[in-house]
């Protein structure tokens, strides 16, 4: 992935929130969410304060609220679970609109929804205002093991390459008249996954060799988290291996 | 599938965070011993592969589809340590960049899906491999068995965590029954897909499959010639 692309959730901008150091953002997200999770769900007004805080940060970031709202769909399966809660929980029951619901379940559903939603909105705000390479530098500063940050860096860098490879394989399948409709089609899709593994693994080997030929000795040099230095080594290996589309 | 923020209470979240950190730390050391300086690019690309395969849709029927979780698959393909690293990194990216799984629940998610799911899947695979004949053709079948067990095992571990730090009053036996029943079903799908994927890799590049190494080691060279065929 090139320097200017960013990930799909990133919303380009130059606000205070965008410019804030990434390690500060990650640390405050973690602390904020720990506080939210530790808050008793019966302190209703406090959740209003949390929400107001988040809204203020989003307003300061100048990311359109609709942008965040649209991306909250990741929460849907979990909302369904929370809505089931009043029906399956035990304890005293109350009648709401003719339905017999468990009081504790209602409270639990509220707690799950409130905390889960705050978590999703807060994480989306981080994702929308932080470039992946800044995020990597931030994690490095937060003393996440160097090796882990490197792995993360390779994953983020090659995400678009590999998903694009997968897309080409899908186009190749479909242009031959294939469409996955039932369980009978699993072997075909699974073979695509197998081919994707072989290609990813071999790409990893080529990247490693390309790095070795550029003097890699096992760890990127200290200070390698600056964008120029991290990008220099492995992205140069990518062009040599981005022509597999025609034998999918 | 991912546990969101607020599902388990703060002490449980922190405790699983410590477990996850220890597990990933150990995996880092072990994978490095195995892969040496190839660790970063290899684990990175395998993580990308796991992430990408989770986007492949497998139609179940009636317009719905499921996707692979990939824990047992990663373990069989690249070995348990690199597998743990890769799946953990996938979960980290999903929490930080995609808001899938809460950041306070990251430790829980890594513990359940990466540590419990993957290790159980691997142990079942390796255990069966020990007692059964070492044949390359068996590797996909064993991988399927590992995948089948890994999903309900993670679900059971989740139920255990929920018993300790759950925030909603659901009767535990109901939850355990629902989780196990549902995830056994998911496990069947996971097993079939894992078996098919491993089978397709073993057919083309058995040398890449970590779990096939013991079977490859005992394989003897077989010389086929025209003379032999016509005789």
TrEMBL record, chain A:
Transmembrane parts of this sequence: 43-60, 72-89, 109-128
Superkingdom assignment: Bacteria
Pfam families from the UniProt entry: CbiQ
Keyword Cell membrane appears in the UniProt entry: yes
Signal peptide from the UniProt entry: none
Presence of the UniProt keyword Transmembrane helix in the record: yes
Residue numbers spanned by region Disordered: 220-248
InterPro entries in alphabetical order: ABC/ECF_trnsptr_transmembrane, ECF_CbiQ, ECF_transporter_component
Record's bilayer topology term: Multi-pass membrane protein
Keywords from the UniProt entry: Cell membrane, Membrane, Transmembrane, Transmembrane helix
Location(s), subcellular: Cell membrane
Protein name: Cobalt ECF transporter T component CbiQ
Underlying gene: cbiQ
Automatic annotation (TrEMBL), chain B:
Descriptive protein name: Energy-coupling factor ABC transporter permease
Membrane association type: Multi-pass membrane protein
Membrane spanning stretches: 40-60, 72-97, 103-125, 137-162, 182-204
Pfam families documented for this protein: CbiM (PF01891)
Superkingdom per UniProt: Bacteria
Lineage: Bacteria, Bacillati, Actinomycetota, Actinomycetes, Propionibacteriales
Subcellular location field: Cell membrane
Coiled coil ranges: none
Classification via InterPro entries: CbiM/NikMN
Keywords: Cell membrane, Membrane, Transmembrane, Transmembrane helix, Transport
């Amino acid at each position: 992935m090139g320097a200017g692309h960013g990930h799909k959730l990133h919303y380009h901008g130059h606000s205070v929130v965008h410019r804030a150091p990434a390690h500060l953002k990650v640390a405050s997200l973690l602390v904020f969410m720990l506080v939210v999770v530790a808050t008793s769900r019966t302190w209703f007004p406090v959740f209003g304060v949390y929400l107001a805080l988040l809204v203020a940060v989003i307003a300061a970031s100048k990311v359109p609220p609709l942008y965040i709202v649209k991306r909250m769909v990741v929460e849907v399966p979990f909302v369904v679970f929370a809505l089931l809660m009043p029906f399956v929980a035990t304890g005293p029951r109350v009648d709401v609109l003719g339905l017999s619901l468990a009081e504790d379940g209602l409270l639990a559903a509220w707690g799950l929804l409130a905390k889960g939603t705050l978590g999703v909105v807060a994480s989306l705000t981080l994702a929308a205002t932080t470039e992946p390479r800044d995020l990597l530098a931030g994690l490095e500063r937060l003393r996440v093991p160097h090796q882990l940050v490197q792995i993360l860096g390779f994953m983020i860098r090659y995400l678009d390459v590999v998903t694009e490879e997968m897309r080409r394989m899908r186009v190749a399948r479909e242009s031959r008249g294939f469409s996955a409709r039932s369980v009978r089609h699993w072997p075909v899709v699974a073979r695509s996954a197998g081919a994707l593994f072989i290609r990813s693994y071999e790409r990893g080997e080529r990247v490693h060799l390309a790095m070795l030929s550029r003097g890699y000795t096992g760890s990127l040099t200290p200070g390698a988290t600056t964008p120029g230095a991290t990008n220099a080594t492995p992205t140069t290996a990518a062009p040599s291996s981005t022509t597999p589309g025609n034998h999918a | 599938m991912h546990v969101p923020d607020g599902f388990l209470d703060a002490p449980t979240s922190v405790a699983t965070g410590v477990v996850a950190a220890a597990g990933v730390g150990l995996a880092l050391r072990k994978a490095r011993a195995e892969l040496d300086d190839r660790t970063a690019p290899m684990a990175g690309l395998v993580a990308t592969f796991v992430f990408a395969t989770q986007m492949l849709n497998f139609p179940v029927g009636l317009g719905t589809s499921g996707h692979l979780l990939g824990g047992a698959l990663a373990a069989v393909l690249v070995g348990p340590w690199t597998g743990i690293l890769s799946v953990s990194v996938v979960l980290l990216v999903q929490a930080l960049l995609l808001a899938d799984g809460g950041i306070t629940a990251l430790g829980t998610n890594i513990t359940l899906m990466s540590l419990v799911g993957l290790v159980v899947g691997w142990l079942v695979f390796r255990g069966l491999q020990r007692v059964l004949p070492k044949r390359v053709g068996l590797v996909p079948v064993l991988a399927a068995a590992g995948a089948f067990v890994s999903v309900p095992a993670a679900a059971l571990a989740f139920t255990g965590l929920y018993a300790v730090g759950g925030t909603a009053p659901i009767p535990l036996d109901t939850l355990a029954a629902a989780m196990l029943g549902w995830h056994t079903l998911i496990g069947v799908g996971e097993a079939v897909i894992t078996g098919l994927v491993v089978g397709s890799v073993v057919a083309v590049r058995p040398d890449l499959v970590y779990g096939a190494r013991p079977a490859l080691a005992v394989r003897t060279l077989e010389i086929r010639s025209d003379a032999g065929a016509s005789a």
